[in-house]
Amino acid sequence: MKTFCGRANPTTGAMEWLEEDENYDYHQEIARSRYADMLHDKDRNVKYYEGIRAAVNRVKERGEKAIVLDIGTGTGLLSMMAASAGADFCYAVEVFKPMANAAVKIVEKNGFRDKIKVINKHSTEVTVGPDGDMQCRANILVTELFDTELIGEGALPTYEHAHKYLVQEGCEAVPYRATVYVQLVESKRMWSWNKLFPIHVEAEDGEKIIVSPSEMEDCPGVPSVCDIQLNQMPSSDFTVLSDVVTMFSVDFSKPVRSASTSYRVQLEPVKSGKAQIVLSWWDIDMDPSGMINCTMAPYWVKSTSTFQWRDHWMQCVYFLPNEEPVLQGEKVYLTACRDEYSVWYKVQKARGEEENKAAVHVESPVCRCQAHLLWNRPRFGQLNDQNRTCQYIKSLMKVLKTDSVCLCISDGSLLPVLAHYLGAKQLLIKTVCYFFFFKFFKANNLEDKIKIIEARPELLTSSHLEDKKISVLVGEPFFTTSLLPWHNLYFWYARTAVTSHLTSNVTVLPQSASLHMMIVEFQDLWRIRSPCGTCEGFDVQTMDDMINNSMNFRESKEAEPHPLWEYPCKSLSDPQEVLTFDFRKTVPEYSLSTEGSVNLLRKGKSHGAVLWMEYHLAAGISVNTGLMQISNEKGNCEWNPHCKQAVYFFSSVTESETLLDLPSAVTYAINFNTKTGEIAMDFKL
Ligand code: SAH
């Protein structure tokens, strides 16, 4: 069946009706899923297997039949492990239909048809009894329902229900226990993802400082977890203020309560500083003895010899509502509050016991200032990047005159404020989040200096502009709807739509943009798209086929966005400019295309091409959203830390082709369809 889905095209801004196969969503989900990454996580798999074997043995030693409940079976992997370990029967529950279907095939292919029953239901719908999904309650509970925050995928309510209705009292559980660890740190870099720092502008009439409205100062921000590859954060980017402490743990073999609660620990700061951030990760013990432990601890906590790269479980960064000065040796309380799905933190000074007891309740983080709804964490980081701001200031100084009438088209941009201080007379802005900007301008006494226009560019009228013509059109460009780097070319379409309102000699800033490309070898990221074949001896190729089928569901393979500062890679070619876009002119009718070849300069596996945009603000001034530099002769790359780059994985990764001869060049064909705003690409090794 086909359905029509309405959406705004991220590049052209046009409202389109797309004919989508009804399976489109699930293909997207599978193609972008973390199943492959989990199956490549050797450390996880080996430890689950050990834990499952031990649990089955304990049950057998008691002379009981081993009946396993595997909630969220995915490919069926953990049930197959249990069956191989001697379990008498496994109930494998999976809510996601395409996965449940795959599990049936995989179980059959591996010869476990009589031992494993796949149940395509949410575990809370599963029935027990002679006519039920399960004949009887299980005595071994196996799950892998954890996300980076541990509980974000609903592990607690699922366990709570399973203990009440699906498993026997005193059952074995794999994992047996999870423990959440925390460490208090000060980090200007991470704090810049959550608060807007004052912005300094050197204007002709002295230094101006752009400040935030007071609501932003103590706003707790949004509750969504900030999960990152903390192992890519150099130790020079944060100061440890406390030892690592255990915040709370969950015993999965006993009834679990999912209701909101809080936990409190006392910390003795090892250093004086500003408590801003709580870094957190967890480990799971697969058995009661704690001998089989799988940990997400970052590099400064555990030895590198046990290091396992994984992307499905990372580490968490929690932002305290305010920065709290702490003194070495002077104890403070750290409180973790959680509801069913998320965790948040607060630091309190250790004063009288009574006072602290009263203050334990911590309100769940709800953004009150609206800035955290307007700007996500990388965007905060970008706006706080004073070097980047300097490039905009320099270029605005070049183009602005005292009688400039300036229109800014960008989402949540502070360019109008910069432009105001740099002398533009009239300022107009088209932005999202009117109320936030109103408050922001007020905090800077600019409410009557900058006019906010709430209109789509194509609906802009001369009355919006008070019958003035625009002499300077600016944009960062940045739009919240952009996923891939080139989606910000929406600026070009908006510029085209407002053409009739521009003076004949209008200055457009940025004047142009260019798309750049480089061939890379990833240290680890390739794993997320690489087929598994077999996993711990089980044939899971059905899963590989399913992922490949979903990836090829769209006619052309697509590039995907990744923040590459978190995913080390080395360059195999020089970076190459492949397309340019001239914002001084309107979007052309014809497509822009290019083809050519890039020479490979270094030995390595060509995993894919990385693509990014550069914006040429004014003569000689650019901002780069991709490669910052190649830091050594090995080709290690440094990427813009605030942007996602586009990654196009070659079929050598997705099909696991073995390259017999190292290619010396890669040929490419790239086409920007100006009608659809889409970039299609093809590479040959
Ligand atoms: N057990 C597999 C897959 C883990 S991924 C492995 O270890 O490789 C978690 C899976 O659990 C997902 O497929 C998700 O769809 C499923 N899931 C999560 N909560 C569930 C629930 N309460 N009932 C049934 N399936 C669930």
Automatic annotation (TrEMBL):
The cross-references to PANTHER family, in alphabetical order and at most eight, read: PROTEIN ARGININE N-METHYLTRANSFERASE (PTHR11006), PROTEIN ARGININE N-METHYLTRANSFERASE 7 (PTHR11006:SF4)
Q: What does this protein do?
A: Arginine methyltransferase that can both catalyze the formation of omega-N monomethylarginine (MMA) and symmetrical dimethylarginine (sDMA), with a preference for the formation of MMA. Specifically mediates the symmetrical dimethylation of arginine residues in the small nuclear ribonucleoproteins Sm D1 (SNRPD1) and Sm D3 (SNRPD3); such methylation being required for the assembly and biogenesis of snRNP core particles. Specifically mediates the symmetric dimethylation of histone H4 'Arg-3' to form H4R3me2s.
Query: Is Transport a UniProt keyword of this protein?
Result: no
Q: Which UniProt keywords apply?
A: Chromatin regulator, Cytoplasm, Differentiation, Methyltransferase, Nucleus, Repeat, S-adenosyl-L-methionine, Transcription, Transcription regulation, Transferase
A Pfam family per the record? PRMT_C
Where does this polypeptide localize?
Answer: Cytoplasm; Nucleus
The Protein arginine N-methyltransferase domain, residue ranges: 177-348, 511-670
Q: What name does this protein carry?
A: Protein arginine N-methyltransferase 7
Q: Which GO terms are recorded in the biological process aspect for this UniProt protein?
A: cell differentiation; methylation
Q: What is its main location?
A: cytoplasm
